[in-house]
Amino acid sequence: MNMALDRSGIDLQPSSPAAPLNGFCAPLAVVVSVAAAGAVFFAFFGAGRSLWLDEAYSANIARLGWTDILSALKADTHPPLYYLLLAGWTRLFGESEIALRSMSALFYFLTIPTLYAIVRTAGGCRDAALLAAFLFLVGKPAIAHAQNARMYSLLCLITALTYLAYMRAYWDRRAQRLHEAAFVLAASCGMFVHFWFVFALAGIAIAHAVMRCPPHPFRPIFSLSLAMLPFGFLWMPILLRHQMQHPLVSLAPPNVWVLAETLADYYGKGLIGGLVLAAAAAAVCGRHILYVFKKETPVAAMATAAKQKACGPLLIFFFAAFLFSLLLPFLVSLIKPIYRVGSYTIIGLPPLAAALGVLLACHGARRLVYLFCAALLAGSIILFARRRIEEKHCSDRSTAQYLAVHVQPGDTIIFTSLSRPAIEYYFRRFPPREGIAKISFPKELEDHPGWRNPRLQMANHAALAAEADNVVQSLAATPRKNQRVWLLYGVDTGVASMLKDRLDATFRLEKKLDLQDTEETFYTCVLVYRK
What range defines the domain where residue 37 resides? Predict the structure, then answer.
């Protein structure tokens, strides 16, 4: 049995493995079993829908050769580990929407038992570990990114594995050098997934300092410094060079309310997320209210006090790690905006789920906790299913299918904003006729098709106008009389209108194809011009 100690040397494990602290285990096992079926539902229901820009960009990068992947990512801000894993995955399972997203689903599944192991290794009872796994399973960012062909599900898994390795190395009496090496390895790998992972490591380091963990209070700090060396030598120069060349960003500096928005986003959005957290607080407060009307025996009161004392160090550590892993990037964003709710902030979900699991197991009223878990699971399933069912079908996939059928040899397709990656992905599935020209406007987007900076583009107004003139002049000089130009238009219109205005003056607008749903596309219509 693991023997985790609090800072006073008190055994945090229950005295008997067969006697859970709160009597939750059997009912909670049923809840978690039902939730496991819900996890499969979250991962695969609607997973065949059209890819959006970032997912298509992931697919386009992953299909390159191994060295070409590294070369392409030098124009991006993301480290390469996820793309290298996705490249191997797609070579085994193909490039369909479900195949691309299933790797993220696998990471989601693996994180669930990891949360259980984190709490158990830290000294939490089975009740707390089951609740932590459950609260991760139904977390909104975890569900969203289980069906997202991006690195965020992997980021969450490696964050959880880093917490687990930390617990085994520094909280477990039986810790060995191998556990510390695993901690260094997990932390090092995380740095090659996403740059926000450094804030997860900072949260662990600060929480460790808050706990004043003997006998080596500075040993994890040394391990983390060692873990960051590979990233510092191999990828940090590329990241810094990219930031120097592209100093402007599309993110706005956050205000203090973004922290409340982040907290609510973990289990809903806005009011819904706030109500979920309020319900969790009610489950905790309800127990203490009930105690006013129901007297405990002296033995039961002593057991409750001992249990709550044992949970104290776990609560302090996990809440401190959660708080500082979000507070630090918030402070950085006041100078250099990098804060993005829902994707980057997924690093806070593992410590939050662990903290809430321990809190509910140690302080929650049993029946209220059952009710809370059942309501949260049912609500998550209903809201998720409703969103998937109500999604409209106009997408990059349908646009690519239409273009593949109607664009003729000699025609030209012009992509504005970030409309090209997803269409190019679907052109591999639905190839258009040969002899079709493709142009990105501005041309610089060919170098970094996954991101753009309209403010920086507009700052080079004269160069942009000259590029638009050259494009239209080259199209007008084409000898083919019935040539058509297909312009994907409607986003970043300040930039794209420079080209559109010149096309309006030179060509005849034949038709305009309006899209019904443009939530995840980077154009709102397709304009068809003819000479």
Answer: 25-390
Are 361 and 427 found together in one domain?
no
Q: Give the angle 152-158-163 at the CA atoms, nearest 5°.
A: 130
Q: How far apart (Å, rounded) are the C-alpha atoms in residues 222 and 391?
A: 49
Q: Kindly state whether residues 370 and 429 are assigned to the same domain.
A: no
Q: Which helix (H) or strand (E) holds 435?
A: none
Q: Are residues 37 and 173 in the same domain?
A: yes
Residue 518, H or E segment = none
Which tokens is 25 given?
A: 């285990």
360 and 429 part of one domain: no
Are 347 and 409 part of one and the same domain?
Answer: no
d(CA 252, CA 493): 20
DSSP code, position 268: S
Provide the whole-model pTM.
Answer: 0.89
* Last residue of one domain, picked from the residues 390, 422, 450: 390
Query: Does 351 fall in a domain?
Result: yes
DSSP 325-394: HHHHHHHHHTTS----TTTGGGGGHHHHHHHHHHHHHHHS-HHHHHHHHHHHHHHHHHHHHHHHHH--S-
Pairing of strands 437-441, 508-514: unpaired
How many C-beta atoms surround the C-beta of residue 412 within 10 A?
19
Q: Report whether the peptide linkage leading into residue 215 is cis, meaning its omega lies within 30 degrees of zero.
A: yes
Q: How many domains does the chain have?
A: 2
Tell me how far apart the alpha carbons of residues 35 and 116 are, in angstroms, rounded to a whole number: 14
Question: What b/e readout covers 248-266, taking b as 16+ CB neighbours within 10 angstroms?
Answer: eeeeeebeeebbebbbbbb
Domain edge (last residue) among 390, 408, 426: 390
Greatest Cα pair distance in the chain: 96
Per-residue pLDDT of the chain (531 residues; tens, 9 = 90+): 343 444 333 334 433 333 344 445 556 567 767 888 899 999 999 899 899 999 999 999 999 999 999 988 887 778 999 999 999 999 999 999 999 999 999 999 999 999 999 999 988 888 899 999 999 999 999 999 999 999 999 999 999 999 999 999 888 777 678 889 999 999 999 999 999 999 999 999 999 988 866 556 778 888 999 999 999 999 988 888 877 766 545 677 888 889 988 988 998 876 666 677 777 777 666 555 545 445 554 444 445 555 556 678 899 999 999 999 999 999 999 988 889 998 999 999 999 999 999 998 888 878 888 888 888 888 889 989 988 887 765 589 989 999 999 999 999 999 999 999 999 999 999 999 998 999 999 999 988 888 888 888 888 889 999 999 999 999 988 777 778 999 999 999 999 999 999 999 999 999 999 876 556 789 999 999 998
Q: Please, which residues bridge with residue 4 across strands?
A: 172
Q: Measured between alpha carbons, how far is residue 483 from residues 98, 185, 461, 528 in Å?
A: 37, 57, 29, 10
Does residue 13 form part of some domain? no
- Can you tell me the distance from the alpha carbon of 8 to that of 53, in angstroms, rounded to the nearest whole number? 52
Whether the CB-CB separation of 57 and 450 falls below 8 Å is answered with: yes
